[in-house]
């Protein structure tokens, strides 16, 4: 089965595309997109991989579900297209960057600028029905994205994994922590952030400190 995904990823993920679960997932997603309004648009389902090649990858940020509001999701976790109002989690991410790095709040919520610098912005589930959060969970996407995390762990070294919230923290079992760097904190959603589990984690400066120690270019957040 042919999946339109960047070549650097296709080479290590081809075996997943040929498994029964992925074939079933493909059938489910095709049916959903043909009968309902779903996000992101079809050409952006694998945008996280297209925007950040495996060779360039330095940082992984894990999200759970794409945004399910009209025009929001663009295939990168926490990211929205330009001119789209910033969702609450993204606002809190930008607020933390402001205080952590002393830079001004950005106008654009499109995080492809991070992806181009080597940040894989990966949701556990890559598609969703409009206005129905979690509607495409447990259909096979999680099995696929778990395989992605394992492959990154196996194929790379010294990647910085940012695991925000309980869901993302469970993914640590897929990562070889002896050869990678894992930073954890609460989720940037208002529920978690307002309880004091997000603000002050300094993950953006800590990530850059790790990259600097490795003699790698830091991320312009």
UniProtKB/TrEMBL annotation:
Coiled coil: none annotated. This is Uracil-DNA glycosylase. Residues 49-211 form the Uracil-DNA glycosylase-like domain. Gene3D superfamilies: Uracil-DNA glycosylase-like domain. The active site is at residue 65. InterPro entries: UDG_fam1, Ura-DNA_Glyclase_AS, Uracil-DNA_glycosylase-like, Uracil-DNA_glycosylase-like_sf. NCBIfam families: PRK05254.1-1, PRK05254.1-2, PRK05254.1-4, PRK05254.1-5, ung. Its main location: cytoplasm. It is an enzyme of class 3 (hydrolase). It catalyses: Hydrolyzes single-stranded DNA or mismatched double-stranded DNA and polynucleotides, releasing free uracil. It comes from Tenacibaculum aiptasiae. HAMAP family: UDG. Its EC number is 3.2.2.27. Excises uracil residues from the DNA which can arise as a result of misincorporation of dUMP residues by DNA polymerase or due to deamination of cytosine. It is found in: Cytoplasm. Keywords: Cytoplasm, DNA damage, DNA repair, Glycosidase, Hydrolase. GO terms for biological process: base-excision repair, AP site formation via deaminated base removal. Belongs to the uracil-DNA glycosylase (UDG) superfamily. UNG family. SMART domains: UDG (SM00986), UreE_C (SM00987). GO terms for cellular component: cytoplasm.
């Amino acid at each position: 089965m042919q999946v339109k995904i960047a070549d650097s990823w296709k080479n290590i993920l081809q075996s997943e595309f040929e498994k029964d679960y992925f074939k079933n997932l493909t059938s489910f997603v095709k049916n959903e997109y043909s009968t309902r309004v779903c996000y992101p648009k079809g050409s952006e389902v694998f945008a996280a991989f297209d925007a950040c090649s495996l060779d360039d990858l330095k940082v992984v940020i894990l999200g759970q579900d794409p945004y399910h509001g009209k025009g929001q999701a663009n295939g990168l976790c926490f990211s929205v297209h330009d001119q789209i109002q910033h969702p609450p989690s993204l606002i809190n991410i930008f607020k933390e960057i402001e205080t952590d790095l002393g830079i001004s709040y950005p106008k654009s919520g499109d995080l492809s600028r991070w992806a181009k610098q080597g940040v894989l912005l990966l949701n556990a589930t890559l598609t969703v029905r409009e206005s129905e959060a979690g509607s495409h969970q447990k259909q096979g996407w999680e099995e696929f994205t778990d395989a992605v995390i394992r492959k990154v762990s196996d194929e790379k070294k010294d990647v910085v994994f940012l695991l925000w919230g309980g869901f993302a923290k469970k993914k640590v079992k897929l990562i070889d922590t002896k050869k990678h760097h894992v930073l954890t904190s609460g989720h940037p959603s208002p529920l978690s952030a307002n309880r004091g589990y997000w603000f002050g984690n300094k993950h953006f400066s800590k990530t850059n400190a790790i990259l600097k120690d490795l003699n790698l270019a830091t991320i312009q957040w």
